[in-house]
Amino acid sequence: MQYHALSFWREGFHVDLVGYAGSEVQRELVNNDDVSIYYLTEPPVFLKKLPRLLCYVTKVFFQSVSLGVTLLLNPKCGYILIQNPPSIPTIAVSVLVCLLRWSHLVIDWHNYGYTILGLTLGDQHPLVRFSRWYEYFFGKFSQDNICVTNAMREDLSNKWKIKAHVMYDRSAAMFGETSLESNHDLFRRLSKDYPIFRPREKTSEYCTVFTQKSNGGEITYIKDRPALLVSSTSWTEDEDFDILLDALQDYDARKQKLNKDLPDLICVITGKGPLKDYYSRKIEALHLKHVQFCLPWLSTEDYPLLLGCADLGVCLHKSSSGLDLPMKVVDMFGCGLPVCAIHFNCLPELVVHGENGIIFKDSGELCQHLQDLLQNMSFSQSKLKQMRQNLKSFQSKRWHDCWRETVLPLFIDSSSNKRD
């Protein structure tokens, strides 16, 4: 939603950004006279001590009041744009506010909330069935709709008679290839907090585990450096990290057999979420010889730099609906980083197997692809180089370009939120 806010601002709109605190707000939106940021109140912690159903109902009521009051007390907006999910209570509250204030509602469909709920409760659970009806009923009140895949556009039309415009996600301009100098500077900074990025041998204070700087100031890769594998996650049930851990255990065993044919690996997994502690303990118990892990939380500025430094990305996102695409892959592609992504229905709308990445189905396939792509570390002549070249066309079109083509025309007739 911050990308939407930035694009509206760049096109001359005044923007009210409403959401919960916790995620870092992009610098261009902070202290901006044309962008007002309103933080919603988090539900009280004591609600978690209530019985499960009572906790859920009370939490939804609290969120409804917080969101409704915030929207109603703000200056009237000509349009309200919401992202779905979250569905409950966002859609219903937004519909009510739009009816009261004669505003237009636009929904950005990234997935279905009921399918995410179904991951933990099961598809036939009464709450999941209610959530499905809720999204259908209130979703039809929207004046316009955006979605992220052609498959979702067809599903919305066929299932609920909702017409939507497809806007494929693209990365922002900050995502790009990282120069060797920036690579060196990044890991020198990160090594202060994460020793894994320090040089393995104390040859010079100007070295990292990947790069070295000569007395003349020239920066080069260290011979026999480890390969850098990067994954990003929200540590939720729709990503099975056991697949990656199993694949890396197999990789470690193959490395011991093949010795120098395979590089050591440093696997960096960014993000935060409910399952992070669980997987952190599993990782600590592995004790692999040739694979190391780092689970940092990076700043908004450092995350794109990290992606631009990596040799290969891994995505374990499985769409709960099979209809959305992982934004993390979009960001990796924006940095020219090929990705190994786990298969689901509409993934080929983004990842073309063998062209800009690899699609795998299980840990065995992932391990084999890692071996094929990283063997001998001859990156200048490898499949990875060709994949990076194939990503040039993807990199040429950024978020704001796609936004202006697809989203802006939906709002262009309105002057109620335009700046003078």
Automatic annotation (TrEMBL):
Chief localization: endoplasmic reticulum
GO CC, alphabetical: endoplasmic reticulum membrane
UniProt pathway: Protein modification; protein glycosylation
Residue ranges constituting the Glycosyl transferase family domain according to the UniProt record: 223-390
GO molecular function terms attached to this record: chitobiosyldiphosphodolichol beta-mannosyltransferase activity
Superkingdom as given in the UniProt entry: Eukaryota
Signal peptide: none
InterPro entries noted in UniProt: ALG1-like, Glyco_trans_1
Membrane topology according to the record: Single-pass membrane protein
Cell compartments where the protein resides: Endoplasmic reticulum membrane
Keyword annotations: Coiled coil, Endoplasmic reticulum, Glycosyltransferase, Membrane, Phosphoprotein, Signal-anchor, Transferase, Transmembrane, Transmembrane helix
Catalysed reaction equations from the record: an N,N'-diacetylchitobiosyl-diphospho-di-trans,poly-cis-dolichol + GDP-alpha-D-mannose = a beta-D-Man-(1->4)-beta-D-GlcNAc-(1->4)-alpha-D-GlcNAc-diphospho-di-trans,poly-cis-dolichol + GDP + H(+)
SUPFAM superfamilies for this protein: UDP-Glycosyltransferase/glycogen phosphorylase (SSF53756)
Entry EC no(s): 2.4.1.142
One Pfam family per UniProt: Glycos_transf_1
Keyword Glycosyltransferase: yes
Coiled-coil region(s): 370-397
Function: Mannosyltransferase that operates in the biosynthetic pathway of dolichol-linked oligosaccharides, the glycan precursors employed in protein asparagine (N)-glycosylation. The assembly of dolichol-linked oligosaccharides begins on the cytosolic side of the endoplasmic reticulum membrane and finishes in its lumen. The sequential addition of sugars to dolichol pyrophosphate produces dolichol-linked oligosaccharides containing fourteen sugars, including two GlcNAcs, nine mannoses and three glucoses.
Protein family membership: Belongs to the glycosyltransferase group 1 family. Glycosyltransferase 33 subfamily.
Name of this chain's protein: Chitobiosyldiphosphodolichol beta-mannosyltransferase
Originating organism: Potamilus streckersoni
